Amino acid sequence: MIKLNGVTKRYLMGDTVVMALDGVDIQIKEGEFVAIVGPSGSGKSTLMNIIGCLDVITDGYYELNEIPIKDYDQDELADIRNKQIGFVFQQFNLLTNLSALENVMMPMTYAKMSKKNREEKANQLLSLVGLSDRTHHKPTELSGGQQQRVSIARALANDPAIILADEPTGALDTKTGQEVLNTLKELNKKGKTVLIITHDVEVARNTNRIITLRDGKVTTDVSEVHHD
Amino acid sequence: MIKEYFILAVKSVWAHKIRALLTTLGVIIGVSSVILLMSLGNSARTEAANQIRGIGSNLIFVSVSDRQGNLPTDWISLIKQQADIDEYSPLISSSATYQIEGQTIDISISGVNEHFAYINALDMTVGRFLNEYDVEYNTPVVVLGSKIPDLLLPNQTVIGSKIIIKGIPFEVIGVAEERGTNFSGDNDMMVYIPIDYASTMSGFSSFNKTFYIAANSEENIDFTLNRVLTYLSTVFPSDANYRAFSQTQILGVLETILGLLTSLLAGIASISLVVGGIGIMNIMLVTVRERTKEIGIRKALGARQSQILAQFLIEAILITTLGGLIGLGVSYVGTIIISIITDFNVILGLDAVVLSLVFSITIGVIFGLYPAYNASKLEPVEALRFE
Prior knowledge:
The complex is a heterodimer of chains A (about 230) and B (about 375).
Chain A: E1 2-13, E2 16-28, E3 33-37, H1 44-51, E4 59-64, E5 67-68, H2 74-83, E6 85-88, H3 100-110, H4 115-128, H5 144-155, E7 162-166, H6 174-189, E8 193-198, H7 201-204, E9 209-214, E10 217-223
Parallel strand pairs in A: 3-8, 3-9, 6-7, 7-8
Antiparallel strand pairs in A: 1-2, 1-4, 4-5, 9-10
Helix pairs in contact in A: 3-4, 3-5, 4-5, 5-6
Chain B: H1 2-15, H2 17-54, E1 59-65, H3 75-82, E2 85-100, E3 103-112, H4 116-119, E4 124-127, H5 132-136, E5 141-144, H6 148-152, E6 162-165, E7 168-176, E8 181-182, E9 185-186, E10 190-194, H7 195-200, E11 208-215, H8 221-235, E12 242-246, H9 247-290, H10 292-300, H11 305-341, H12 350-376, H13 380-385
Parallel strand pairs in B: 3-10, 5-7
Antiparallel strand pairs in B: 1-11, 1-12, 2-3, 2-11, 4-7, 5-10, 6-7, 8-9
Helix pairs in contact in B: 1-11, 2-9, 2-11, 2-12, 9-11, 9-12, 11-12
């Protein structure tokens, strides 16, 4: 469902051209649980932005669900982000003036779902991540782990097939980080395609396939058949 | 969707109450000054129009300077043969000064005929106006303006008393109702005496004459005025010797002048609206910048450009509309205060309410559009990176 062929991303930083991605070929099938690892500057964040349709490629070919992304305009890309991809960010990226429930409802608002349905779905999702008693709390009133669980609930709002998690444990201690990873694992078991971008090999070990990036190129792509 | 943006905007404005209030100050001042000046101007127009209509109906004013005696005494009878004239009255005027208990009182004296009261819609509070016998037989009788009895005949029975005008005793036969001041001066400080009697007295010009002519219908005013002008042009060598104009013309000129004045003042006041709008734009640009991260998050989660645009535009419109409503309240209080301290009756019309809302919403749209557009065009990746 995700297909990248010779994907290149260049951008200007001051006067110098930075080659963030340099001919990346990756194919990810539905239901896979993949980690993209690499040191900082390896281009893994750029890769996530491109897969997540937050950024566009300079050269090459990117296809999501059999449709080349180049064919889409800004509004269609927004709709793809809204309905087909669920984002989980390192810094949670919750809106601080909204409650947990309102944060989870937000992507559904953009999907033009009715208020009643939004509330119902958001409550369901918050119960799913174990926060049914925190629905009206503001992000600042929640712990880091709780905030990340809110953002996972938000990522699931419009039932996307793909979950993109950018350093989802980066701002959490090991224990809560593992809890978040377990939640992602659960989601993968339920059929979601889950991509984790991380620099932490320990985190990557939770997945079934590890793609390593270095200097904008894929260096290794290992599928672990045997997994805990 | 609009409802959601509205709720969002309310929350966002509420989160920065003081800032929002300060931002709207420009709009508040702008809207209230425009509305107040327009209401004032409209009231002035109504007041002026009422005054002019109060003079009488279908009136034509003719004033001549007839040093050579070109104008025959019965010239109006000639006009009457051509146009439908209801009644007319000549008028010659002078003035007199009285010293009573150290107080100086100036009165105007008008020599008129018996039709003057009818033509000018002048009603009596007591007694009667001059009649045809007073005029015909040059009876020394006088009708007083409403303020004069208290000044010249305090604590006396007015009707039947005598007042001395230019050395001649006149018997008071009536007192006119209160008229106020208009372009012919303070009507309440005026006395009316028979025209021919006046023309024999000192101080009345023998060649400067005024005529009040009432056409018999509104449709006939222009026609009659034309006849008068045509006739006068045949009588006098130059058009510098006469002037003739109708009540409708005065009304028209006055309305034009006051209308212009109102628009001019409102125009000047609307500069403050523009300044207020720039303030809105400024603060919205700051808001958009402060909330870059939020915009990034919203875009990452699927907000379209149009949805971000709508969110910030509605926030700007909400702020300016609040300003407009507060401004409306301020101008409402303003009209009450003006009505109390002056005897001017200023009314805040429905048009003012509609206008203030239209103004404030327009300002919100115009000055909110650019910041909202900026917000909508932010790149999601860069916006997300913003701290």
